Structures are given as structure tokens and as C-alpha cells.
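USER: Please consider what follows.
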Amino acid sequence: MSMALQAPCAPLKSSLRVGRSCSSSFSIGRPLLPSTRASLKRKAAYVAPVAAAAASTTAVTESNERFRLNNLSPQKGARRQEKRKGRGYGAGQGGTCGFGMRGQKARSGSGVRHGFEGGQTPLHRRLPKLRGIAGGMSAGVPKYITVNLSTLGAKFSDGDEVSLESLTQRRMLNLSGREAKLPLKVLGDGNLRLKLTIKAAKFSSSAKEKIQAAGGEAVEVPQKPTWTRALHKRKVAAAAAAAPKKAVPAASAKKKTAKK
């Protein structure tokens, strides 16, 4: 049984051309059989139109398809599978398997944490800190929900009561998250011509003057005090002082005097 060899550029004796310049026959020096030639013609006539139609369909689909959650994916070639490095020449990747000859990363069990720069001051410590909210400082975080007097005339009429709940119901405020727990503060920007009863945790001096000048009323709503250790100790001491003292029974008092 002879093995079939492949000629680098052996011309075919048939009129069919497979490839660009040259093709190979099943045995050197022998022409293709008629049945083989016919099957190659049939395959070539079928494969070419199918491949062209598939390419055009793919191009049209890619151009017309909208981004959805079910077809989001990275670009082709953007993400590659990480290469698995061996641990010796038996892995077929060379003697060092891509780790190099010497150094900390060439040793077994090696590795440095993210951001480590060999002991020098790393980048995240060399850069200046941010101020305000971005730096996590509480001084820049708002402590009130602010409303100006100029915005109250559009949604309220004479004699209405303004509060945090009424502002939310009339969609002047859309509070969520941390803002939903903040109290209301009224500022004096603009003019007020309506007689309103405004209930808020705090008023600016100009806002209070303008509300009273228009005939309205500024009511300060008491807020829950912020918990501190000193405040807690004062409350405990006040409660202990206000509590009535328990009367000591006569028998227990006699026992105490006898022990003395």
C-alpha cells in the first residue's frame, strides 16, 4: 500500500482549478479520476455561494442589530485567555516557562500585591487627597434639604401650609437615599407675597423676616438631637435623679446596723 504524497506545485490534468496556482493529485504523476473530478466540481459549486450568502447575512445582521442585554459581548480579540505557565521543561515552554532566570517573580510562591512599587512611596500615596465629599470629609456633605421662597409661589396659594411632606406631594422635591432622612431648611432667595405657614427645621434670617412681613408664620420643627456620649450620660443621670428612691425595709436596715 503506497502512501499518498503531496506535490508542492504539481499541475492538474483536468480543467478544474482548486486553489490559486497549483493543486495536488492523490498520487504523483496520475490524473484525477472522473468521479473525483465531478465531486470536486459539485463541492466547489455549492461551497462558494453558501459562503458568500453567510458573509452577507452576517454583515447585514451586525449592522442592523441593536445592542441588547442578550447580545452584549467584548470585541473579538479584546479579551484573551490567560496563558497557563508551566513549572519546568516538561511543560514544553522552555526551562523557565516565561518566568525568567532570577528575581522575585521567578521564585516559587512569588507575587506582589497590587500597587506595590518595591518599597518606595506608591502612586496612591503620592497623589494629594481630595477635599469635600469626594475625599470622604463630612464638612462637604449637605445637612439640610434647602428650598427658596421664590419657588413657593408656583405651587402654593394664600393660606396653605408648607412642610417637607407637602413639598414632596406637590413634586417640588424628589428625595431618595440619604436625602430622604434630611430635614428642611428655608432660604430667603426671592420675594414672597403669599401668607403661608411654613414648617421647617431651620430658617435663614432673611427668610424669616420675609415670611413675617408677608403675614405668614415660620414654625421651627424640633429635630431629634444627634447622639453623643456626653448627651447619653446626661440623659442617664437625669433619669436616675428623677426616679423615685426605693424604701428600705426595717428588717434589712436592722441587719445593716447589726453588721456595723
About this structure: Residues 105 and 112 are 8 Å apart (CA to CA). The longest strand covers residues 145-148.
